[in-house]
Amino acid sequence: MAAMNQSQNLPAETGELTHLNAAGEAQMVDVSAKPETSREARAQAILSTTDEVLNLLTQGGLPKGDALAVARVAGIMAAKKTSELIPLCHPLALSKASVDFELAADSITVVATVRTRGVTGVEMEALTSASVAALTLYDMIKAVDKAAEIGQVKLLSKSGGKSGDFRAAGYPAEGDAR
């Protein structure tokens, strides 16, 4: 095995925020010079399923129990563990992680909200939370509907930080009816 060149672990000389070091290799971005700000992100995942599953879900009749409660906890846990799941993500002290569900005629929309006060955003935590909650729902319903599909995993909104605020097209502003 070749000896590792220590200079390969140094950030790019330009001082810009980058996932590449001076040798062009992947690294965790050095955010130590960034100021702390309040940050929030919301993300969604949509699980398409059958009327039968939705009826069992609302009546508490799924074979594995309360799928929404289990998926909520899984999503919150995933937000807290994002840096262990997604390479190069910073470990963050989260001040809030929540998962909510919107049931429709043929789908369950998972909406994850994550907050922190820190030097980097929580978009990946919100996306990971929504994704893992949807995967957990699939696991909980697959005995009834193996054909269920997870899709439309996307960032709905983010606030705080240097890059400013973001709101997905069609996603209502805070306080507007959803």
Automatic annotation (TrEMBL):
Quaternary organization: Homohexamer; trimer of dimers.
Family in the record: Belongs to the MoaC family.
Key words, A-Z: Lyase, Molybdenum cofactor biosynthesis
EC number(s) on file: 4.6.1.17
Organism superkingdom: Bacteria
Biological source species: Psychromicrobium silvestre
Official protein name in the record: Cyclic pyranopterin monophosphate synthase
Keyword Lyase belongs to the record: yes
